[in-house]
Amino acid sequence: MRLDTDPYLSRYADRARDLAASEIRALFAVVNRPEIVSFAGGMPDTAAMDLGAVAELTAEVVRDHGHTALQYGGGQGREELREQLVEVMARGGAPATPDELLVTVGGQQGLELVAKCFVDPGDVVLAEGPTYVGGVGALSSHQADLRHVPMDAEGMRTDLLEEALAVLKREGRRAKYVYTIPNHQNPGGVSLSEERRVHLAELAEEHDLLLLEDGAYSLLDFEGHVGMSLRSLVPDRVVYVGTMSKTFAPGVRTGWIAAPTPVRERLVVLREAADLCPGNLTQLVVERWLTTQPWEAQVKEYRALYAEKARTMLDALEAEMPAEVAWTRPSGGMFVWLTVPRGIDTSALLAKAIVNRVAYVPGRGFFGDGQGGDALRLCFSYASVERIREGVGRLAELLQGELALLRDVFGADAPELAGRRDEPGITGGGQGGGGTSRDPGPGWGVA
Amino acid sequence: MSTSPHVAVLTGGMSLEREVSLRSGTRIATALTEGGLAVERIDVDRDLVARLGAGGYDLAVLALHGAAGEDGTVQSVLDLLGLPFSGSDALASALAWNKPIAQGVYAAAGVRVPDRIVLSQLAFRELGASAVVDRVAETLGLPLVVKPSTGGSSLGLSVVTTAAELPAAIVAALSYAEAALIERFVPGTEVAVTVLDGRALPAVEIVPKGDRYDFAARYTAGRTDFHVPARLDDAAAAACEAAALAAGAAAGARHLYRADLIVDADGAPWLLEIDTCPGMTETSLAPMAAEAAGVAFPDLCRTLVDLAVRDRAAA
User: A26 to chain B: which residues are within 8 Å by CB?
Assistant: First the structure.
């Protein structure tokens, strides 16, 4: 007798049929245990929040606006909130009008809706390599042909983008859009230089490109520097996705899209099909937060806190890491991208890391094409300064041990052991060694 | 003991197979609760001994996979606490956990196991074993299966078809254990024989839809076809049963265990390993075999409880 463990298999859509259990996802089940110093989840340090103030304004929302808060709302999101979000965008140097905005359930829904709006199966989308794991997830669930453009310390190599566009042209195809996180990129930790922003805007004009600008970390520069927004350069060519997750709290699941009107209108219809409307309760909480609380002071506090944590992590990396390991030096945001010799498979190594009580996100999840086996992402925003030192120490010890093992297995001069510090890009992007190429996917607090 | 014992289902823990263990544990706890037993699910951590001591439990059902749960560690602690538990005792667990040692024991008991070589981290670090890696392929032939010497769920397992792939596969396996077990790849039909209280249940045949029965194939419903009973002729089926029982007896396994085998083109079974705490998830093999033998999942769980009581350590 043949046993059918999934009698629904023949019914699934193409986009769901190949979804599979993943070793990395399974390992993440251990990562959240307190014994482990986790640099995995891209979580803000909500310990820095004034919970009393949030409790009070939430109570006010229910008490004074309960019937609105507990009722359905419009698909575009509350106008009063959109007016406030326009102000938040303005602080990040991105102009918009309330009518161009659509309130979403976190930035992630924004990325998903944009993919749903523009991507047919097989359509090409270009993105930084590595790029945000949730962005990869949104695109792969719409079966995009995701192609990566390498980065260096100044962000996306726009010269290589130009080459990629030329290749597409020769193939008689075009990119549906270019996804970029210009400020303190997740996971790269680097920002797009002003020169390249201008170049990117020029390329957009020249090649009739649409840009998807993800502004998640725009307000998290340690010095308070505000990068030039692509939306300020070529507004008609930019769909902008923003989020309150990094400047307020991810638990309110509030983000937004700012898009040219025809696009915005379609996005509203698509969103209504998905979830009707954003929750009024959380919209009102965010609205109140932005109107009655010193939210910019809170952002400033996050910035100072993350600056200290980043410094701690970078100092610890400098002091402890073997010479073969390279990493980026963020001036904002939440992440450091670490590149290891090619003989190390960071997906396989995660098991050993967990046994050594430290966790990270393996690099493959940040690519749509299996690259990244020789890299990993560290988040510095959540762990305490003491835990950061402890965790980096454990990770360094682990990598030392692994390199010693590689020397023993491959021989001291093997190319698998070559150091990565002299390479121009932020990652070599090698295919990695072992047989565990699994995408952790969003979820598990990996955002 | 009263007719309705107070059961602790041990699950989770810090193991790399934590997620699978949580799935097994939740499923067992639900089945026992619906069967009318007083059940608590305990996520194993540093408080385990204190919790078990204070909880007034009559016995523990183990749904632990991976180190600490399956290697004899928790079994020793339960012995000290005088708490009966389901599954193999500490010694049998520790023995079966170490695949290379266990295979030697199975071979000595007359069970056919694949030719194999074990290379530990120590061998590379202190003995310069890299100089003999080339000989592995010469000695065993290709393709080869490389896996961690301990652990389950196919974590860290790879199949290599060229000698050049071997070092990377060894390094990947060493991420999960101190030693890599390198076996000759035996082509054939993949079969699992579950043994419940000394009785072999119908063999389950595993036909992954992809290349191999890896983690995704194991835990994604629909990724693997299972045939129960396995499509073997009577002689091969009997040989599989005999191998599973002989290996289990050699290891001293008891209550419920699962033997993983390959049946080659000549109908001869090759024993790969014995799992003394087999998975109990929706896609797991032991519950499938029990179902085919007419033992529904709740009855299987209840049997584990009864066996733990019957074989309490104090006896």
Answer: 16-20, 153, 215, 219
What residue type is assigned to position A256 of the chain? W
Q: How many CB atoms within 10 Å of residue A300?
A: 13
**Largest pairwise CA distance in chain A:** 71
Summarize pLDDT for B224-270 with one digit per residue, the tens: 999 999 999 999 999 999 999 999 999 999 999 999 999 999 999 99
Closest CA to A234 of A254, A260, A255: A260
* Burial class, B99, CB count within 10 angstroms (exposed 0-12 / middle 13-18 / buried 19+): buried
Q: Which of B171, B283, B288 sits opposite A409 (nearest CB)?
A: B171
Tokens of A13: 């859509």
Model pLDDT for residues A345-355, shown as the tens digit of each residue:
999 899 899 98
Order the strands of the A101-104 sheet from edge to edge.
A101-104, A255-258, A238-243, A211-214, A175-180, A124-129, A145-152, A155-156
Closest-approach residue (CA) in chain B for A404: B125
Nearest to A324 by CA among A342, A311, A346: A342
pTM of structure:
0.90
Closest chain A CA to residue B152: A23
| Residues in Cβ contact with A257 at an 8 Å cutoff, skipping those fewer than 6 apart | A101, A102, A104, A110, A113, A114, A239, A240, A241, A242, A264, A267
B12/B63 Cα distance (integer angstroms) = 8
Helix, strand, or coil here: B261? strand
State the ipTM, two decimals. 0.84
CA dihedral over A120, A123, A128, A132, signed as positive or negative: positive
- Which of B74, B17, B215, B62 has its CA nearest to residue A30? B17
